Hints:
527 residues, 7-stranded mixed sheet, 28% helix
Amino acid sequence: MKSLIFACLICVTHLNAADIVVYGGVPCGIAASIVAAREGAKVVLIEPTKHVGGLSTSGINTAESEHMLKWTIGGFADEFYRRLGAHYQTGGPEYFFESSVAEKIYLEMLREAGVEVRFGASVDTVEKDGASITAITLTDGSKLEAKVFIDAGYEGDLMARTGVKYVVGREAKAEFGEEAAGVRFDKTARQARTVDEIGALLPGISAWAKDLHEGDAHRAPMNYNFRLTVAKDPKLQVPIPAPKHYDEKRYALLASWLRDQTQQKKPVKLADIIDLYGRRNGKFELNNKQSAIYSLGHFGGQFDWPNATYEERARFYQDHMDYTLGLLHFLATDAAVPANVQEEMKALGLHKDEFTDNGSLPYQLYVREARRMRGEYVVTQQDVQEERRKPDSIGMSSHFIDCHHVQRVALNENEFVNEGRIWRIGYAYQIPYRALTPKAAECTNLLVPGAASYTHVAFCTLRLESVWMITGHAAGIAAALAVKDGATVQNVPLTQLQDKLRAQKQVVDFIPGLPEKCEHLNGPPEF
Length: 527
């Protein structure tokens, strides 16, 4: 009998039973895990990398509140930013921070809530009984059973393996009647050589404009890039390493433009190519610059990431890193680069106090958008701008519709145009619970607060860590209620869910007297 009991214990341990398994230790998944654990659920959080926090701990050191209404940030998100404020002694929520500080606070909150975190393994396979997930197996061979699963990750990898329907890329204007959908050419053409000596398109140019049509669907999401943290003070620097694989031909378009500027005696500075945001303690954040002739965003490099295998993504990751470090190396050393720009570039170094176990390079690539679920309700441009009130609201967003470019396309041999940019003033809108739930016929115990059921245009208002913490908070409470009541995620009692969220200071409702449009915020012209 003792042997049998021992064998059963071994079996249970091997299966790793939990109430809720959350996939993705990004801010969305951290929020879901912590609030569910506070409700008494046994929670396991799976993070495929070695660090929690996603891009908040990998170079994006802002809540993006500069382009949203701060009153819409409540619940767990507000709690996190207030913990940052306590750290920095600002007397309130702090929306600008450091990656290392954000990671420290996330880890403290996870420990306080008693969440078990598993690092270094990705979801491999999913087992189902009808429309219910029974277990998942990770790439390290471990198997986890749970009553409810939450996919909080950027790519929706658990969702995809569950058999839930999803889309990648951009819908056509006609599909949902969205004014900003589909292929979108910038209004201004750029002057630069687009082909090589044999007429082939230069690296970084994806297609000829004549082969694309405004408003058509397109398979690719917006571009990705690394958000490096750099320093200007030599005392705070470590050298920016050269890429493992450097090919100056990748930057031929930029070289052509720089030579042309030099010939025309037009001044160029580093800020014309890369955005450099000042942050705390001598830190600066590098980002893709929307108006640049050639920028930190690896246009075209993101096309196949969403549906790629983990092995393919590892190669794409390295390609993005080579592209990024190669661009910085090019700007510091290439003869086509004006001397003043070379000196500006050489004066920068990686900040020695960030990502110290990774050569001072960020852990994660900025995957702005990948898969998007087709769930019980699809949030569209109309929902985020016009039809903004929803009876099943579980939180709010108000960020601008902000889509970075997708690609460069050649107009002719000497001109190109960037494609894919959207920039629309944000409105406060209610996020419907139905956008987090798959269709019941496909899965009844999975919530997807990360790769949620949005069109591409609408997703541009969701894809912020601050907003993802809001959807993660709602998913965590909904999962805990489903566990407690033995209900499907589609049948969680909505009134009870909303009341709990309100009690936890999640902003579920419009507040009379507060602005609903971000018209007080400044930004570049609308695209």
